[in-house]
Q: What sequence folds into this?
């Protein structure tokens, strides 16, 4: 049982919006949003994980007339909740980075 929980937790953290926006390079975040054909031009660093997930939901696949898989929506909803917790814990750092570096620009949209 512990192994299953560990694998599930590792999988969640690997795709966590906060991990992708705070701990990875800005280019990775920009490339991921370009690949998803997101309509977001930038992601603020404050609560960036939640905004990143929101931007992924509003990508090309979320256009009118197209549907998303229920499992994918469920994963993003759970990830938004987990990202909200991690974003709150990272708030002092992300406030500093927002002030010094600004938001994460999605280049080449």
A:
């Amino acid at each position: 049982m512990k192994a299953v929980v560990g694998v599930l937790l590792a999988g969640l953290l690997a795709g966590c919006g906060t991990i992708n926006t705070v701990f990875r390079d800005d280019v990775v975040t920009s490339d991921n949003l370009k690949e998803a054909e997101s309509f977001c031009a930038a992601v603020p660093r404050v609560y960036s994980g939640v905004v990143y997930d929101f931007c992924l939901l509003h990508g090309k696949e979320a256009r009118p007339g197209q549907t998303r898989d229920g499992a994918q929506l469920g994963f993003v909803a759970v990830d938004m909740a987990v990202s909200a917790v991690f974003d709150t814990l990272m708030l002092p750092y992300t406030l500093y980075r927002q002030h010094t570096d600004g938001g994460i620009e999605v280049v080449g949209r």
In short: Residues 11 and 88 are 21 Å apart (CA to CA). The mean pLDDT is 81. The longest strand covers residues 42-43.
